[in-house]
Design a protein that fits this description.
7 strands, 7-stranded mixed sheet, alpha/beta
């Protein structure tokens, strides 16, 4: 249990499902063991602290040049992802007028990469307004056909009607901020990007769980707009976390999934991308997943975070074990390359 203790030392009140999953991974995957050991060494490394603080400051205080670099970096990640997974390959070839939905779109790097591969595709996006902490849209600076690229600037986590809630309690602190509109309701999309990250807030609302709300908001809208057989790309964190493993297991039941992590960009971080192809949104497994995400959004929005900071109810040990039995070996197979990339990056940058 010593290595498991190292793995969980800095995770306050780690849930039992996470403990069970981590123990399975430590017992079955040497690459994950190596990554866990490197992270344990890195916690006390001042160089690591300095590196991550510098990157956080750069992201939070980016000027015009920094924002342009971020746009170009996301475009490059999209290109690399396509080379590895063919995620941007749409039905009908590059000249077909397919639909692409980009959730949390700005600054627009992923959309730019997709348009390079699909010159006639229509892009529809949703992005948080700059005034609310969102990124500046840079895609509009390029020359696309009139009407080809459209973006609605709103808070995706407040689309209550889309998520099945028609009545907001008057006592809710943001009762007037919830939205009844349903963006792009009459359209379907062959490719959907879910790339949202939470806005850092030194004083987050205590009555809601922001990370869970953003994750479920993207998932619900994506599955309710994606075309049959479409591709979904989603930014995720920590393949060894229970909520992430459960999400991958769910998608494996109604799509063909791959994981992708850039070799150079963000390679020391826990982030990676899910690429789910041939998504079948109408099948029972997908419908059940959407229903669960709606329930999770409801709890995270109106019940607030639980003591562990997440409104997701803890699963019974039997449920966790069932997922491990059915999907554990596949999870290891999928995650091994991204753990290797992160391990190599931690070593090369002297963080561990």
């Amino acid at each position: 249990m010593e290595l498991l203790d190292h793995a969980t030392r800095n995770e306050a009140q780690i849930s039992r499902p996470n403990l069970i999953l981590k123990q399975f991974l430590l017992e079955n995957e040497p690459v994950f063991v190596q990554l866990t050991e490197l992270k344990a060494k890195g916690w006390g490394n001042p160089e690591a602290t300095t590196l991550f603080q510098k990157r956080r400051q750069q992201a939070d205080n980016a000027g015009p040049d920094g924002r342009r670099r971020m746009f170009e970096m996301m475009e490059q990640i999209g290109e690399e992802m396509h080379l590895m997974t063919k995620a941007l390959l749409l039905p009908g070839g590059p000249h077909h007028e397919a639909g692409i939905l980009d959730l949390c779109m700005a600054p627009g790097g992923f959309a730019a990469a997709a348009l390079k591969r699909n010159a006639r595709a229509k892009i529809r996006g949703i992005s948080l307004p700059v005034a609310c902490g969102g990124h500046e849209m840079l895609l509009e600076e390029r020359s696309w056909s009139p009407g080809q690229v459209q973006c609605q600037f709103l808070d995706i986590t407040m689309l209550a009607t889309e998520f099945g809630v028609s009545s907001i309690p008057e006592s809710h602190p943001e009762q007037s901020s919830f939205l009844a509109n349903r963006p792009y309701l009459d359209e379907s999309f062959q490719l959907v990007f879910c790339g949202g990250t939470i806005v850092r807030n030194p004083n987050p609302p205590k009555y809601r769980s922001e990370a869970l709300r953003l994750r479920t908001s993207q998932l619900i809208l994506a599955l309710q707009r994606i075309a049959i057989g479409g591709t979904l790309v989603m930014l995720l964190h920590k393949a060894d976390a229970w909520d992430t493993a459960l999400l991958l297991y769910q998608f494996s039941q109604f799509s063909a999934i791959q994981l992708f992590k850039p070799e150079k960009k963000h390679n020391v971080k826990n982030t990676f991308y899910l690429v789910a192809k041939n998504v079948q949104p109408g099948c029972q497994a997908a419908k059940a997943a959407v229903a669960g995400w709606k329930e999770a959004w409801l709890l995270a929005t109106f019940e607030g975070p639980e003591e562990d900071g997440d409104a997701v109810a803890h699963e019974d040990d039997a449920v966790v074990q069932q997922v491990i039995d059915e999907f554990g070996s596949k999870l290891v197979e999928l995650a091994r390359p991204i753990w290797k990339i992160q391990s190599d990056a931690l070593i090369s940058k002297g963080i561990a």
